[in-house]
Amino acid sequence: MKLTPPGLGRIPFVRQRTAVLHTPFRFARQRRRRAVLFGVLPLTLAAAIGTVLGCRDQTTTWSAEVRSPDGRWLASARTEEWGGPGTASRATSVFLKQGAQDPMEVLGFSHEAPTIHLTMTWLTPTHFDVTYGPERRGDSVSVYFQVVKIAGIAITLRRIPETSLR
């Protein structure tokens, strides 16, 4: 068995270091990593956050109120628009409210135009009448929610015929 003086041979079970050569290829790879970490990744993250937060754009474009003949009920309607990529829509909702209670939605309309033709009338203190239709020819209005009777109030809904539109 040959003995080597200390410090002149390999030490078993210890990982030997090798010199790292910096080549142009190695620098290019590091630049690509930095570009992804400091350039592309933050831009992608900012775009994703902007898209999510940008879809919450909501605006009320029209509103009206009518009080019942005995003054106990308040009917209100409002048209709202939502914006965003692929999520833009318009809807009109009609609510009934008695005293300090929260308003209750009784009618819901979906439409293409910014507004619809909507008339709210109290025929009696217990009969609420709503007339609706598109504002112009070619617009479509659909009812997606309808309550017929609530808390003793009968709600009638009538559509305006196409012939009476401008």
Overview of this protein structure:
The protein is α+β, with helices and mostly antiparallel strands. It has two domains: 18-54; 57-164, no CATH class. The chain is 19% helix and 43% strand. It has one helix and nine strands, in the order αβββββββββ. The chain has one helix at residues 24-54, and strands at 57-67, 73-83, 89-98, 104-111, 116-124, 127-134, 141-146, 149-150, 153-159. The strands form two sheets. The chain has a five-stranded antiparallel β-sheet, with no helix packed on it. A hairpin with a 5-residue loop joins strand 3 (89-98) and strand 4. The longest helix is centred in the N-terminal third of the chain and has 31 residues, at 24-54. The chain is elongated and about 85 Å long. The mean pLDDT is 81.
Tell how many strands the DSSP assignment holds.
9
Mean pLDDT: 81
Overall geometry comes to elongated
Q: State the end-to-end CA separation.
A: 111 Å
Order of helices and strands: HEEEEEEEEE
Q: What is the number of helices?
A: 1
**Helix fraction bin:** 10-25%
Poorly predicted tracts of residues: none
Class of secondary structure makeup? alpha+beta
Main beta sheet = 5 strands, antiparallel
Strand order of the largest sheet: 1-2-3-4-7
Q: Name the beta content range.
A: 35-45%
Radius of gyration: 35 Å
Question: Total domains, how many?
Answer: 2
